Amino acid sequence: MLCAALFPAGASFATDTGDVARGRYLIAIGGCNDCHTPGYAQQGEKIPEAARLTGAGLGFSGPWGVSYPTNLRLAAAQTSEDEWQSRARRNGLPPMPWSALQAMSRDDLAAIYRYLRALGPAGEAAPAALAPGQAIPTPHFVFVPQPPTTTKTSSR
Ligand code: HEC
Hints:
Protein name: Cytochrome c
Bound molecules: heme C
Pfam families: Cytochrom_C
Organism: Zoogloea dura
Shape: globular
Low-confidence stretches: 8-15
Strand content: 5-15%
Domain Cytochrome c: 18-120
Distance between the termini: 58 Å
Largest sheet: 3 strands, mixed
Keywords: Heme, Iron, Metal-binding
Structural class: mainly alpha
Order of helices and strands: HHHHEEHHHHE
Mean pLDDT: 90
Helix content: 25-40%
């Protein structure tokens, strides 16, 4: 089923089937859809694969300013594999788990890249990150530590 959905007849990536399947697996176990697919954290598998990883305009606001999950399909479509490898290994803004990508092997990152290329470009680029203090023109989560809402009863 997946093959039928992901590999329409005549698709040029047919020879990459192994890598593409591995990339799909890595994306699933890495929880990447939770942020990079709009609505996925709420609806999970109900979001069809063809609509996944298109980035989000729902920002994450914190001391770093505001970050937006990149449209990974556009990024892969516009980037060579070598360039993508270094973009994936850089450090950027939270809450992207950069250390998870840095811990991946080149082969794993290549498999993810090939999966993203197989999905093909879709959607629009996510908004650019905002510096701290800038007005925020999109919906956003606020990552600010809060004090406890109950009084501790344990001994101190
Ligand atoms: C908790 C939310 C979250 C999760 C989970 C997450 N990301 Fe991200 N990701 C982001 C945000 C936000 C950015 C933009 C960061 C910035 O602006 O520096 C980003 C950026 C990226 C980039 C940089 C894209 C580019 O072209 O510059 C890559 C690649 C990426 N994510 C891949 C992944 C992969 C693969 C996974 C799963 C292993 C993953 N992300 C999981 C939030 C997330």
